[in-house]
Amino acid sequence: MRLGGKATLLGDDIDTDVIFPARYLAVLDPRDQSRHLFEPLGEPLRQRALAGGMLVVGWNFGCGSSREHAVTAMIGGGIRLVIARSFARIYFRNAINNGLAVVSCSAAVEVIGEGDQVEVDLARGRVWTPRGEVAFEPLPPELLRILAAGGLWASRQKTGEAA
């Protein structure tokens, strides 16, 4: 599974309230949610993130509450990939479950610059950047199947599993 986009860079410890503020939790449609994505960081950053389709972030991305809105707002805005030094555990799981590709790779974060065009092969564990190729631990086949299906619910629908 290959994905790519134009990188928008963020720092460390970006919590779910920064990704998707709690005051909008009643907004359920992911496209509507995307209007509030990264609202505390300003409209220019939100626009870059949505236009580029991928984020490159620091340590502990998605810390804070377990709200899925922090993932579904990204998906609603067309973001399909997040590369991080590390993820908060619940955010990582919510991302996979909802069909958002996430990659932990400090080496990639080191070499990717703002606006760089980046391509990732999740199955082979490779990131291609303007400054070269970086390897990471490939995602397990089970997670790749969930992502390819568009999330856990879609994956279970295709296989006939109970939710």
Characteristic key phrases:
163 residues; alpha/beta; Aconitase, domain 4; seven-stranded mixed beta sheet
Question: What order do the helices and strands come in, and which of them pair?
Answer:
Layout: E1 2-9, H1 16-19, H2 30-33, H3 43-52, E2 53-57, H4 69-76, E3 81-84, H5 89-98, E4 101-104, H6 106-111, E5 117-121, E6 126-129, E7 132-135, H7 141-149, H8 152-159
Parallel strand pairs: 1-2, 2-3, 3-4
Antiparallel strand pairs: 1-5, 5-6, 6-7
Helix pairs in contact: 4-5, 7-8
Describe the structure in your own words:
With 163 residues, this protein is an alpha/beta fold. It has one domain (2-159): Aconitase, domain 4 (Alpha-Beta Barrel), CATH 3.20.19. It contains 8 helices and 7 strands. The protein has helices spanning 16-19, 30-33, 43-52, 69-76, 89-98, 106-111, 141-149, 152-159, and strands at 2-9, 53-57, 81-84, 101-104, 117-121, 126-129, 132-135. A 7-stranded mixed sheet has the order 4-3-2-1-5-6-7. Helix 5 (89-98) links the parallel strand 3 and strand 4. Helix 4 (69-76) crosses helix 5. The longest helix is centred in the first third of the chain and has 10 residues, at 43-52. 38% of the residues are buried. The model has no long low-confidence stretch (mean pLDDT 93).
